[in-house]
């Protein structure tokens, strides 16, 4: 039965995880703003800063690098000729995604803030 799902199972899990992220992010942003309003800490400066954070080009860079390196991980798994029953395949994909995160961190930490 497990052989029937293969990589499609990974796609389903990834899609569900992404959907949960897309649902939770606006909710947590709303809760943060509401809490700041309740505490009297909300100002035009805080509003501007949160708006800039959402429109940051670095956010696109981060997700682009992560998806790029995850794709490279899938390609490496394909050429290693291992099945997804083995944990090696998932390890390669996770390590390649982690390399994307680390590269993003190195790029962002080496540049001074543009603001």
From TrEMBL:
Signal peptide: none annotated. InterPro entries: DUF6249. Coiled coil: none annotated. Pfam families: DUF6249. The chain crosses the membrane at residues 6-24, 60-80, 86-107. Keywords: Membrane, Transmembrane, Transmembrane helix. Residues 33-107 form the DUF6249 domain. The keyword GTP-binding does not apply. This is DUF6249 domain-containing protein. It comes from Spirosoma profusum.
């Amino acid at each position: 039965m497990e052989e029937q799902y293969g990589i499609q199972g990974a796609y389903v899990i990834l899609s569900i995880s992404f959907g949960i992220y897309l649902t939770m992010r606006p909710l947590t942003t709303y809760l943060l703003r509401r809490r700041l309003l309740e505490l009297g800490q909300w100002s035009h400066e805080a509003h501007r800063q949160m708006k800039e954070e959402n429109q940051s080009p670095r956010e696109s860079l981060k997700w682009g690098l992560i998806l790029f390196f995850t794709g490279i991980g899938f390609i490496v798994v394909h050429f290693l000729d291992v099945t997804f029953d083995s944990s090696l395949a998932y390890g390669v994909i996770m390590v390649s995604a982690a390399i994307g995160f680390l590269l993003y961190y190195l790029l962002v930490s080496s540049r001074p803030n543009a603001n």
